[in-house]
Design goal:
By secondary structure, this protein is an alpha/beta fold. Helices cover 31% and strands 26% of the residues. Strand 12 and strand 13 form a beta hairpin. The chain is elongated.
């Protein structure tokens, strides 16, 4: 086990190159199972979630490995439709392989996926969508067993705009006979990215970014090739919030402001000066932080749940009071008791966190319990007075590559150490 040792109080200055998006790379890696040709994912983030997906692909018979900054996948020898239980438990996104495995082998077997414990994230929406394509599904001893000799296109109405379900249905539907129409589809930019990748392979997908996605199935051989996924809007948001909390001026490089406009709107209300130019976002904060009255997580283009913990940490050191409402995951405030160890004044009632701003955090030893909550604790420690230790940073390693190095390049005093 490792930890971060952080001496807080330093302002942040400089530029930070934003990594390729974790939430784009994972479904794209799953999609590589659909072709026998080599796929190269350029500038893939070196994070544990992506490494685990590469390991899963290897267990299926694919040749998948990092080559420098890229990941190269050759699925021509794939011969297994079962994701091992041990690997599935490490990665929530292993569920993305259901669609591609069914499309390729006519069957799939996967243990219920793991990942962060941030509340119930049932796969019912995935399974119900796949059933509409003709997949027969049963559950046995903690496994999901799927079988379908021939996928058939259909109209699918999602009960809620689930990102994962939308992507999984897309990945299966590209091999279905006829057209599949997904209604109430999620609109996240990562879904548009998946559509671009699938179409680069020779698939026929349209409508991503809207509430209706149409997929025309094809039996034709799909192409491989090189693909550069989009930048990680959640990593970018985390660094921008860090600069807002610590003060200073940073440039997030390689990211579109449009993809995190809901965050930028809130940060401007907090008193930050923000400029966007091409693929750069410049944030400066040299005055007091001002509280925003309300933050509510919503499906895209609303405020992202993956930035809720970081923004709650910021609210803790703003003048005034804020209400943070988590509408997507019911236990995503698990990090709050750890923030309170650092002096935060937060009361959680159901889906609401009532935050009363204080001047500063105090250094403390805290424990990360999930990916984004762990990032929030790191940000709080950077802004705190004194020394902090953040334990169990394997959680932050799931989504942030070279996290401490990037923060140090901006002037933070942070090191990784063994516990």
């Amino acid at each position: 086990m490792e930890k971060y040792i952080i001496n807080g109080g330093n302002k942040l200055y400089g530029g930070v190159k934003i990594q390729t998006a974790k939430n784009s790379v994972l479904p794209i890696l799953a999609a590589a199972v659909l072709t026998d040709e080599k796929v190269r994912i350029k500038n893939a983030p070196c994070i544990s979630d992506v490494k685990n997906m590469v390991r899963i692909l290897g267990s299926l018979g694919c040749r998948a490995a990092y080559e420098g900054d890229d990941i190269v996948i050759d699925s021509s020898a794939a011969d297994c439709h079962e994701v091992p239980r041990t690997l599935a438990h490490e990665l929530r996104s292993s569920v993305f392989l259901l669609g591609p495995l069914i499309a390729r082998f006519g069957r799939a077997k996967i243990a219920y996926p793991g990942g962060c414990d941030i509340g119930l994230r049932p796969v019912d929406l995935h399974l119900n969508g796949l059933k509409r394509l003709g997949v027969k599904i049963r559950e046995s001893n903690g496994y999901i067993l799927c079988e379908c000799p021939g996928l058939r296109g259909n109209e699918i109405m999602l009960d809620c705009p689930s990102v994962g379900a939308t992507e999984n249905i897309m990945l299966a539907a590209v091999r279905a006979e006829g057209e599949t129409v997904i209604k109430n589809a999620a609109r996240e930019p990562e879904i548009e990215d998946l559509q671009k990748f699938l179409n680069s392979m020779g698939c026929k997908v349209r409508g991503a970014g809207s509430g209706t996605i149409a997929v025309q199935g094809t039996a034709a051989k799909l192409r491989g090739g090189d693909y550069q996924p989009m930048a990680d809007r959640i990593e970018a948001g985390t660094f921008l919030i860090a600069a807002a909390m610590c003060g200073g001026e940073i440039v997030a490089e390689g990211i579109s402001g449009e993809n995190i406009s809901s965050l930028l709107h809130k940060l401007r209300e907090n008193g930050c000066k923000i400029h966007t130019k091409n693929d750069k976002i410049i944030l400066k904060r040299d005055g007091p932080l001002i509280s925003v009255k309300s933050i509510e997580t919503q499906p895209y283009p609303g405020f992202p749940t993956d930035l809720q913990a970081q923004m709650t940490a910021l609210c803790c050191i703003c003048r005034g009071q804020s209400i943070v409402t988590e509408n997507l995951f019911e236990t995503r405030f698990k990090y709050v008791p750890e923030l309170c160890k650092m002096g935060a004044d937060i009361t959680v009632a159901g889906r609401n966190a009532f935050v009363r701003g204080r001047e500063k955090f105090n250094g403390a030893t805290v424990v990360a319990c999930d990916l984004r909550g762990g990032a929030a604790l790191v940000l709080a420690a950077l802004a705190a007075e004194g020394r902090s230790e953040v334990l169990d940073i394997s959680h932050t390693d799931r989504g942030y590559g070279m996290f401490e190095y990037k923060l140090r390049s901006l002037g933070a005093d942070i090191v990784r150490a063994a516990v």
